[in-house]
Structures are given as C-alpha cells and as structure tokens.
C-alpha cells in the first residue's frame, strides 16, 4: 500500500537529503523538461545519462522500448533501497518527450511502491495499485 504523498508536478526546491529522479537520454544531454530542471537546479551532469549526479538521479528513457528502460529502473530501485537516508522524488519519467504513457512506465516501479523513501507520481501509483 502507498500511504505517503505523491511527487508534485513541478519541483523547483529540494529539502535536505532529497533527490530529484528524472528521465534522461543515454548521452546525458539534459536540454529540457525534467532533465533540464535537473541540470539547471539539481546538479545533473551534462554527458552523464544514468545514476546519481548532484541532487538528482537520471534514468535513461530515450534509447529504446520498455525493456531497454527496465534495467535502469531496477538499478534505481536497488540504489533507493540501499540509501534510506535519501528521499527520492520520482517524476513521470518517460512520459514527456520519450512518448510513453504512465500505464507503460508505472509497472517498472512496482517494486518501489513499498519503499518509504520513494515518492511516486499519482498516475504511477494508480496504475501499480490497479495491477495488484
């Protein structure tokens, strides 16, 4: 069960030990959308397309289908599980310029729903809970 707040639509500020989780391209060209915000505000590194960077965490979504994205989401979930000192704000990764829908992306985060330090978008939670 998910009994915490949802990731807000727009994040421009992070509290202490909070991490902005965004969809990126594999080359780490953080031009716009959540990637642009991560680059401008939260320390995303130009040229780095995956993993922790500053106060952000990149998950590549522009390089293939859902199965190409899955390993990166799994790496993120493992990272979040090992780093309970952080609160992770997962944006609607893959649902902007990458062209996926929450119904396609949300199931990748099913194993994160029980992690108290991972905040998910409402749309993802609704899909995941519907799957159960």
Task: Output the keywords.
single chain, 132 residues, alpha/beta, Leucine Aminopeptidase, subunit E, domain 1, 5-stranded mixed sheet, 5 strands, 30% helix, 16% strand, globular
Task: Describe the secondary structure blueprint for this structure.
Blueprint: E1 18-24, H1 33-41, E2 51-53, E3 56-60, H2 66-82, E4 87-90, H3 102-105, E5 118-119, H4 122-131
Parallel strand pairs: 1-3, 1-4, 4-5
Antiparallel strand pairs: 2-3
Q: What percentage of amino acids are in beta strands? A: 15-25%
Strand sequence of the main sheet, in spatial order? 2-3-1-4-5
Number of strands: 5
Give the helix level as a range of percent: 25-40%
Structural class based on helices, strands and sheet pairing: alpha/beta
N-to-C CA distance: 10 Å
The low-confidence parts are none
CATH architecture: 3-Layer(aba) Sandwich
**Principal-axis shape:** globular
Q: Kindly report the name of the CATH homologous superfamily.
A: Leucine Aminopeptidase, subunit E, domain 1
Q: Mind telling me the CATH class?
A: Alpha Beta
Please report the number of helical segments.
4
Tell me the count of domains: 1
Mean pLDDT: 95
Q: What is the element string, with H for helices and E for strands?
A: EHEEHEHEH
Radius of gyration computed on alpha carbons: 13 Å
Report on this structure.
The structure is a single chain. With 132 residues, the chain is α/β, with parallel strands linked by helices. The protein has one domain (18-131): Leucine Aminopeptidase, subunit E, domain 1 (3-Layer(aba) Sandwich). It has helices at 33-41, 66-82, 102-105, 122-131, and strands at residues 18-24, 51-53, 56-60, 87-90, 118-119. The chain has a five-stranded mixed β-sheet with strand order 2-3-1-4-5, with helices on both faces. β4, α3 (102-105) and β5 form a beta-alpha-beta unit. The longest helix has 17 residues, at 66-82.
